[in-house]
Structures are given as C-alpha cells and as structure tokens.
Amino acid sequence: MYSLAEPRCSPGSGPRGGIPLATALRAQGKEVHLANLAFSDLNRLDLDDWLFPGVARVRPGSAGDDA
To answer: What superkingdom heads the lineage (predicted)?
Structure first.
C-alpha cells in the first residue's frame, strides 16, 4: 500500500517515481494526474521543444540557466 504521507520515491525522481503510487490510486478508482516541475528557463526553449501548450520536452541539451 502506498500513501502520500510516506512516498516510495525520493525527491527529484520526477513523474516516473510517482507511477507506483498513481497505479495504486487508479486501482482504487481515484483520478490521477502526473506532472513535473521544471527548473529550466522554459522561455529559452526552441519552439520545436513545445509538444503541446504548456508541455515542453526538456532534455540535458535543452537551453536553460546553465546553457
């Protein structure tokens, strides 16, 4: 059993770490959304990096604060 009080993933693991919790919650009939917070300067991304409005592909070579 997974709970929000004792998550099974470590901070910084992104949405992939939440998949076991999301799967368990969906099995209970809950509505689940996975998201991730970017610490990159998203305004510097190329237009091709934007998959949908509000959804960007950020990779190691993407423009950001350290580029």
So the answer is: Bacteria
Letter string b/e over residues 12-44, b meaning 16 or more CB atoms within 10 A of that residue's CB: eeeeebbeebeeebeeeeeeeeeeeeeebeeee
Q: Record the pTM.
A: 0.42
pLDDT digits (tens, 9 = 90+) for 2-43: 455 554 545 545 556 788 888 999 999 999 887 766 667 788
Residue 55 φ then ψ, to 5° = -125, 115
Cα separation, 43 vs 11, whole angstroms: 25
- The answer to whether 38 and 56 have CB atoms below 8 angstroms apart is yes
